Amino acid sequence: MAAPVQDAIVVFGDSLTQGGWESYGFTQRLAHDYARKLDVINRGLGGYNTEWALPVLEHILTPATERKNAPIVRILTIWFGANDSCISPSRQHISLERFSANLEQMISMVSNPESKYYSPETHILLLTPPPINTFQRGPELESRNPPRLLDREFDVTAKYAQAVRDVGSKHTLPVVDVYKALWDAVGHEEKALNKYLSDGLHLTADGYTIVYDEIMKTISQKLPKLHYDNLQQVFTPWDEVDVSNVAGSVAKRNIFK
């Protein structure tokens, strides 16, 4: 199999990230807008919490000793909390303190010079979980066979969103506040979240539009050099190819203009 030649954006999270490959999802839009500049790699793991995701991140990241001439992960988005915030006794539940610690461990894997996965060229974006619509989630779970009890609470999810903000502030990392964006969009009315959540938890096309817009707004403000408008295509545009020296003129280029 051919080795990848372009640097990448890696999106890492739970089913909200995995669903980003839907035709209306945020990773699909990222892949379109960063085409020929950065590859977009989706590593969404439906149902996972941060405890289960930590060892997976070790498989995703390349140790520094093996990274020579390899493509660079330019942006790593970390989007968890929707499952960690399940209420006990759910097996997905992770305490608020452990959730924050797990996020910090993920960050350290990339940002700590002592880590074997240290990558100073990688920028981390943290995403907050969206608010929960219990008016949708409750009936959806009750309709299952067998019926299930409500597994998430509105106020609990809000605390996990705040934990993401706190971790971001502690480590001076950009936070894409999906929770606030959706909550503000519905005028702080929980029932109105049905426009953005399909089942009280997962996102609709309108919901993913907000996620994408918030990601791009954050990149524009915090990582402007990595906005797609400020990058050049890895391989020369067709109208710049030197027909007398094709191989030389289409050689791989640095993405920065």
From TrEMBL:
Classification via InterPro entries = Iah1-like (IPR045136), Lipase_GDSL_AS (IPR008265), SGNH_hydro (IPR013830), SGNH_hydro_sf (IPR036514)
Q: Which UniProt keywords apply?
A: Hydrolase
A GO BP term here is: lipid metabolic process
Q: Which GO terms describe its molecular function?
A: lipase activity
Q: Which residues form the SGNH hydrolase-type esterase domain?
A: 11-209
The portions of this protein that span the membrane are: none
Q: By what name is this protein known? A: SGNH hydrolase
Organism annotation:
Rickenella mellea
